[in-house]
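Run log, item B.
One chain of 159 residues. Sequence copied directly from the ordering sheet:
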Amino acid sequence: MNLSKSEKTTGIILASLLLLITLASTCFFLGKLRVSMIEWIAFNSCSPSSFLYLIFFIIFLINKKGALLIITALPLYYLGTMSMFVLPWDGNYVVAHIRHIIMTLNIAWVFFVLLKYKEYRAIALGLLTGIILFVPFIAYVQTYNKIHEEKMVRLFMQK
């Protein structure tokens, strides 16, 4: 799949924004909050999903295979887009929502490009692979966060 210059540029800009905000978020959780790696994966589950998307995006730029782009659609949508509807829009959550918007824009770009180039097989394979990989991940994150809800709330209420 050969993208137009503007499509490729848009994808690179969106991916770059996602990289910057994901790095900042990771530094915040691991540096300032000093959470463990498991807590980072669970409490900041957007970061591992975003890093994986970025890896797949780079591979896509090299091999031009669309299926890789959409594998992370489920966690980006569920952890990013849907979070905008369940988390408050104040305090420390505002920065998180900026990231959720960037995640949503990235996945919207992926769907736009794949649908424009009629990559239906890539969409089907990528979404199926994503479901197989990420439903257990999301279930783990939800379970872990429920069990450790008190610590998560305490961390998020820090200034």
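Observations after the first pass:
- The chain has a mean pLDDT of 95.
- The chain has one domain: 5-156.
Flagged for discussion on Thursday.
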